[in-house]
Amino acid sequence: MKSTMLTMTCLLGALVVPRVARAANEELTPHHVAKIQSVGSIAISPDGSQVAYTLSVPRDPFEQKNGSAWAELHLVGKDGEIRPYITGEASVASIAWTPDGKSISFLAKREGDDERSLYVIPIRGGEARKVLEHEASISSYAWGPDGTWVAFLSTEKVSKEKKKLKDKGFNQEIYEEEWRAAEIWIATLGEDAKEQKPRRLPLPGSASSLSVSPNGELLAVGLAPSSLVDDSYMARKVRIVDRKSGDIVAKIDNPGKLGDIKWSPDSRHLAMISAIDINDPADGRLMVASASGGSLTEILPKFRGHVAAIAWQDDQTVMYIGDQGCETFFGEVGIDGGNKKVHLQKGEAILTGFSLAKDGQTSAFRVSSPTHPNEIYLMAHGDAGARRLTNHNPWLADIEFAKQEVVEYRARDGLRLEGILVRPLGEEKGKRYPLILTVHGGPESHYRNGWMTAYSMAGQVGAAQGFAVFYPNYRGSTGRGVPFSKLSQGDPAGKEFDDFVDGVDHLIEIGLVDEDRVGVTGGSYGGYASAWGATYYSHRFAASVMFVGISDKISKWGTSDIPFELFAVHDRHYPWDDWDFFRSRSPVHHVEKGRTPLLIMHGKDDPRVHPSQSLELYRYVKVLGNAPVRLVWYPGEGHGNRKAAARLDYNLRLMRWMSHYLKGEGSSKPDSEIDYEDPREKTPGAEPVK
User: Fold this and answer.
1) Which member of 260, 360, 452, 582 lies 3.0 to 4.6 Å from 313 by CB, making a disulfide possible if both were Cys?
2) Considering the domain 402-682 in this protein, what is its CATH number?
3) Domain-by-domain residue ranges, the chain?
4) How far does the chain reach from its first CA to its final CA, in angstroms?
5) What confidence tens digit (pLDDT) does each residue in 450-495 have?
6) Is the pLDDT assigned to residue 637 strictly greater than 70?
7) C-alpha to C-alpha distance for 216 and 365, rounded to whole angstroms
8) Distance set, CA 296 to CA 5, 423, 429, 454, 606 (Å)
């Protein structure tokens, strides 16, 4: 089946997008954002001629059952022809090519399935066929090199006896003691998946990742002492396992956090993205180790950035995406640290993922830009650049985009900092504008100069409504190497939060921003910053929108599921070491200073930042009565909103709160009810959002 999607061809850095005859004259709205489709995971075919990918398609909460975005399966050839394979109400995950390159495999729970199972669909047409099901859901898998077997991960099954007791009301939960291990199984594939009896490998702890060696003899496994979140973050170690016996034959004691693990084509080495030590906030160093075990060697030791993705080009060469500042690049390095080359320079595109063909000569990229979310690009050896293959939001050609740029400024102590600025649409020289400051979470994260608009980030929607929108990469952010990412440790809400105020001052000094009309928002650690802006720094902010944020550092410690990570890479000491310090770095401790109108929003089932963090700040501000405050719960949502209705509601509330207090009179709170109808659909003759 052929798609009507336009074929896109362009060089990175010289984007040429087919447009309709009329000029772009629409402005981006929250209702547009709610409909944006985006490329998810990608997998290039072994011969490099085609790319399989998942496509995130948001649900229409008014026409469909509310829920997370659908995940469809598509295929695009190097000529740009798109072939949809599984579309509609689909939840495709973990896509891969079968070793013979003739089919695409994926995980899904389809009609008639009790659990998530493994499916295969031939690329030449035909229905998807289930090749493996298990007593519990399959969470990930890896093909054996001859395609006759797979290794897979699945959580141990709940016993029938325990299920019966739970049905009778014995549903008590023993907190953090009832964790179930993720186990590794080996399954030989046959004609009838239901008759297969996979073999479990008796490994200690809980597995979270696995990779099969190209010769099929070994597995590289990420093992943690338990499946608890803190262990999965901080205590995962790489173990080499014999496929047949299940014995651990080698150990690689990577320090701290662990990312991708990849086998060399000759099965002699492993490349991985790892932390440099237990206090490193993020996995971002490129390491190589012998498959027989032993020490790790960092092969980009002087890199002042973070490695985001890796793949082997040949036995001696690793390809990688590097994050550096607000930009990305694509390079290669030999396993001895030599022969460094860069194939896509910084500033050419924002690369968010890649997949390499078997011969290492063709790569598919997931790319975003200031004017489009993730799409697929392709580059073969010898090409001058990467060509764009997909365009899943063609209507964006009719949108008028504001200017987006990387801004450099100095903190008050002289530290050089960067951020991304989206200027107001139709900006007039000499005019000052209201600002929405958006602070990222983590803080081990950073903003890239790509697509900057989402349900929780104003971006181009804010620009279209006459705001400047600024995204600072404050100290403690990733993208600038380990030393920079450690600068905020032991100093929560200290210089790191001074940094974003210094960014606001820079924008005031250059004449862009009105200092009396500045708002702050962010989620998680960015929510912490928003609470800090509404209390300690209240004199600097006229509005604040706090999302799943921290208000009390002491009670946060007592309700967190990541206490060791908090100690090792954030606070560097425990609350009982210095109660007064933790109290002083809590927004609730400064609540009497608060005069900033504060909108608080939180998922009611958040396991990372307990909802009590929002309730506590709300109650203090409300009782004091010095500033308007509102608390919005999202039932069924966790640490961030996943469902379509909650995302649209959040976006509309964010923009209305900022408009009310930064552009309007702001004398009283805006109405608690939201009009969800697209205003374009109320205007006679207006074209509704597509």
Assistant:
1) 360
2) 3.40.50.1820
3) 402-682
4) 23
5) 999 999 999 999 999 999 999 999 999 999 999 999 999 999 999 9
6) yes
7) 27
8) 46, 45, 54, 38, 36
